[in-house]
């Protein structure tokens, strides 16, 4: 398992051979290895950042692991402490686990066992970090939603004052032009906030048995403003296949709208977007697979990986919530949305929708 | 020529009240009064008997725009346009008063206000017509009943 390469490991052992042996193993795995031969040497250190693990010999000339453990936990609270011990001292090593050591390693050191132990620690660390990150994101998300929610009144006041100001300067064309520019910015802000609000709002589906075709056609026809002045066609390559699923047409239209809007933004004219459908299974149940493919430049590996991430965008306008919203809606339908790999160039988004109660 | 429409508005934001006072006359309407909260709105409607009410939903005090609309309707059916800072379906579900004719989401613009007022007035007219029709039918039926009841029975 690959480990984070800028992580450090501290080896504490009074035997130089053991230290060097450990360093060789660890350096092969790209750890930065630091070493100490005694308790005193350990306590002299000042720099305790970014230690993934401390390999601590149970017996040191000027003290033992049990005494040093609590101190180390203070100095490097994030580091996992592994007790290195001879078999004869195993009971004591196990006791050390109760004092906060993460694991023990038997001498003579087996490189694979050491690697496995460190891999496990770094995996745990990664999961913890991810959970923390998710928590942070959730907090930010909540704050954003609150902000977007509370913005309504302020935006309303700005709008009210802008229109009143327009009346005051009706005879001054330059001032009116500036007001028009403020109005444009205000509209943009309002749009952004409304998208954030929509993303944060609880999703309640009102589902009915309906042809998905009617939904994407509606989405396409509602994109009339975005298509104005463009050469863009929506082609349907549908064999003899039933397109009826249990869907919320209003929500699903938003999904198609966001996909089609992205396609229009990414492609140069003439834009050709193709919808294909096929029968599929989802968790053993009948499902409909819908692929929407465009003739644009396609998605880069990074885009493919991050397309459903909230606030990820390649456009200069927009919140980067479009595909995150789409994913949320599709998943609320019990379906899946993924990036397809089309034969030619172009981007492809695939939807998998359960048929529902047939 | 039609007499100008008399409107009572309500919003706790002075900016928005000023806005109504300035913009609505430009659209040919009269702002009879501008209330700061639900209670004041009900009082103003009692005093001025406006042709239309435009009210914010969330306002300080014990009575919000929806409750005020119900109270106004009880006293004298008046069409109401509700305005809210955001689109909120659960708030609207509470709006049971039949006199609520339109719903606008802030920030409202002159371009939204004009058609909403027209629509609200037309809808209210239809609503009133069918209400009268229903009450006519009702009273005709009542008349019938009375007459058939008062008809001397053959003994």
Descriptive overview:
The complex is a heterodimer of chains A (358) and B (155). Chain A has 358 residues and is of the alpha/beta class. In chain A, 49% of the residues lie in helices and 22% in strands. Chain A has helices at 16-28, 39-44, 65-75, 90-98, 111-168, 173-200, 212-222, 224-227, 249-266, 301-306, 322-332; strands at 8-12, 32-36, 51-57, 59-60, 63-64, 80-85, 103-106, 208-211, 232-237, 244-247, 271-282, 285-293, 336-339, 348-354. A 5-stranded parallel beta sheet of chain A has the order 2-1-3-6-7, with helices on both faces. In chain A, strands 9-11-12-14-13 form a 5-stranded mixed beta sheet. Chain B has a 5-stranded parallel beta sheet with strand order 2-1-3-4-5, sandwiched between helices. The chains are: A alpha/beta (358), B alpha/beta (155). Chains A and B meet through helix 5 and helix 6 of A and helix 1 of B.
> How does CATH name the architecture of the largest domain in chain A?
2-Layer Sandwich
Q: Main beta sheet of chain A, described?
A: 5 strands, parallel
How many domains make up the 3D coordinates of chain A? Answer: 3
CATH-assigned homologous superfamily of chain B: Response regulator
The CATH topology of chain B, please? Rossmann fold
How much of the sequence lies in strands of chain B comes to 15-25%
Gap from first CA to last CA of chain A? 45 Å
Largest interface: A-B, 16 and 17 residues
| CATH class designation of the largest domain in chain A | Alpha Beta
Radius of gyration of chain A: 30 Å
Average pLDDT taken over every residue of chain B: 86
Residue share in helices of chain B?
40-55%
Query: What spatial form of chain B do the alpha-carbon principal axes imply?
Result: elongated
Q: Determine the CATH topology of the largest domain in chain A.
A: Heat Shock Protein 90
* SS-derived structural category of chain B: alpha/beta
Uncertain segments of chain A are none
Q: Please state the structural category of chain A.
A: alpha/beta
């Amino acid at each position: 398992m690959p480990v984070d390469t800028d992580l450090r490991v501290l080896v504490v052992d009074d035997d130089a051979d053991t230290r060097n042996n450990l360093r060789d193993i660890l350096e092969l795995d790209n750890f930065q290895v630091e070493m100490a031969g005694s308790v005193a040497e350990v306590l002299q250190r000042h720099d305790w950042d970014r230690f993934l693990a401390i390999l601590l010999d149970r017996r040191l000339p000027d003290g033992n692991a049990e005494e040093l453990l609590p101190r180390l936990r203070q100095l490097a609270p994030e580091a996992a402490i592994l007790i290195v011990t001879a078999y004869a001292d195993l009971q004591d090593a196990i006791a050390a686990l109760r004092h906060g050591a993460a694991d023990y390693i038997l001498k003579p050191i087996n490189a694979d066992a050491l690697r496995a132990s460190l891999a496990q620690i770094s995996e745990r660390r990664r999961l913890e970090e991810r959970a923390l990150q998710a928590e942070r994101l959730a907090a930010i998300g909540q704050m954003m939603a609150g902000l977007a929610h509370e913005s309504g009144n302020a935006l309303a006041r700005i709008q009210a004052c802008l229109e009143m100001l327009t009346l005051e300067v009706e005879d001054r064309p330059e001032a009116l032009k500036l007001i028009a520019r403020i109005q444009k910015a205000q509209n943009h802000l309002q749009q952004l906030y409304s998208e954030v609000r929509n993303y944060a709002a609880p999703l309640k589906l009102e589902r009915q048995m309906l042809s998905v075709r009617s939904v994407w056609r509606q989405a396409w026809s509602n994109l009339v403003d975005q298509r104005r002045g463009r050469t863009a066609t929506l082609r349907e390559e549908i064999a003899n296949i039933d397109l009826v699923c249990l869907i919320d047409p209003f929500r699903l239209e938003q999904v198609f709208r966001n996909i089609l809007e992205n396609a229009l933004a990414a492609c140069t004219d003439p834009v050709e977007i193709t919808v294909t459908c096929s029968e599929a299974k989802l968790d053993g149940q009948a499902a409909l697979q819908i692929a929407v493919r465009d003739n644009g430049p396609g998605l880069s590996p990074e885009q493919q990986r991050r397309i459903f991430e909230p606030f990820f965008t390649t456009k200069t306008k927009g919140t980067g919530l479009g595909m995150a919203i789409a994913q949320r809606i599709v998943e609320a339908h019990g379906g899946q949305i993924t990036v397809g790999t089309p034969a030619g160039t172009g981007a492809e988004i695939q939807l998998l929708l359960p048929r529902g109660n047939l | 020529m039609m007499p100008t429409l008399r409107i009572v508005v309500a919003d706790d934001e002075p900016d928005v009240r000023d806005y109504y006072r300035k913009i609505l006359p430009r659209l040919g309407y009269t702002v009879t009064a501008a209330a700061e909260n639900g209670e004041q709105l009900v009082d103003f409607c009692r005093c001025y008997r406006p042709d239309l009410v435009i009210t914010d939903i969330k306002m300080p005090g014990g009575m919000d725009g929806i409750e005020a609309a119900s109270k106004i309707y009880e006293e004298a059916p008046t069409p109401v346009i509700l305005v809210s800072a955001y689109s909120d379906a659960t708030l609207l579900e509470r709006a049971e008063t039949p006199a609520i004719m339109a719903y606008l989401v802030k920030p409202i613009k002159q371009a939204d206000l004009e058609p909403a007022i027209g629509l609200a007035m037309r809808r209210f007219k239809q609503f009133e017509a069918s209400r009268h029709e229903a009450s006519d039918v009702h009273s005709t039926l009542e008349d019938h009943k009375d007459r058939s009841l008062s008809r001397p029975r053959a003994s």
